[in-house]
Write the structure tokens for this entry.
Amino acid sequence: MKISSAFASSLEAPAHIAAAERLGYARAWLYDTPHQSPDVWMLLALAAQRTERIGLGPGVLVPSLRHPMVNAAGAAGLAALAPGRVAVAFGSGFTSARAMGTKPSTWAFLREYIAAFRGLLAGETVEWQGARIRMMHPSGHAPHRPIRIPIAVSATGPKGLGVARELGDGLFSVNEETAGARDFPWAALTVHGTVLAEGEALDSPHVMAAAGPGNALAYHFLHEAGADVRELPGGEQWLAVIERTDPQQRHLAIHEQHLVGLNEADRAAWDAGSWESVPRTTFTGTPEQLRTRLAELVKAGVTELIYQPTGPDIPAELKAFLKVAATV
């Protein structure tokens, strides 16, 4: 199993990716979150200039944010800057869509989008929304077509997994969702969390900073899925803060600080005991506990584990996690 990294697309992301390369991580993924980040392609290009070996890619691209030609051009440009190191992941857009008040893409739309993206990189003339388009980049503006870039699809359920099997080279999952992993030669899984120091309590300031944002993701996801978030520790307090917000702006309150820090509702939940959920909602534990969980993921068919660190010391989190993972 390869050990890769993922980062929020901050201005410091290129430096974080360079640190991940020095430590030996296989790949670095950046989130496509324009509501809270600079452009993902811009940051990946900067990272390409600061690195030599590590794989690079957006994980995941959200079709509703850009015309397929824009993402094809971005992928082609990155492939020119980092030959042989680029991969791309697509998803329906849970956070990037919800945070801007829209719904995720349908699987039918995602299928059409990925097919168009693939065709463009292959040098084909494709039809998109009634128009015929083709990459017309002359020499020196992009690599010659075809441009071969592996594509992973973030998918769950029969429809999503069907699109992944049809158009993807691999499966891209989050939060220890391993259903379908064995059906793909490349099964990537993103996790959030931290390595506990000996005797460290789950409600420590370090765990709050390093695993709190990943823990909060479970509350965001359950609420957006229509489930009762009050079933989680601190869920009632979390919901009380969210429901004080104007319904037309509630999505802004939910997704503020997404996978970076704790927003007002997340902090209210943490103070009320949401930290009790951390071992279940994140990849957090002692070195021995994490090695056991890593071995289980290998058995489940995961071939690439993607770790996203948070907190004030990203390099230290990367180092601690790789020290554990390298022994599995």
The chain has two domains: 2-195+285-325, 205-279. The beta strands are 2-7, 27-30, 55-58, 88-90, 126-128, 131-133, 151-154, 170-174, 187-192, 304-308. The chain is about 45% helix and 15% strand.
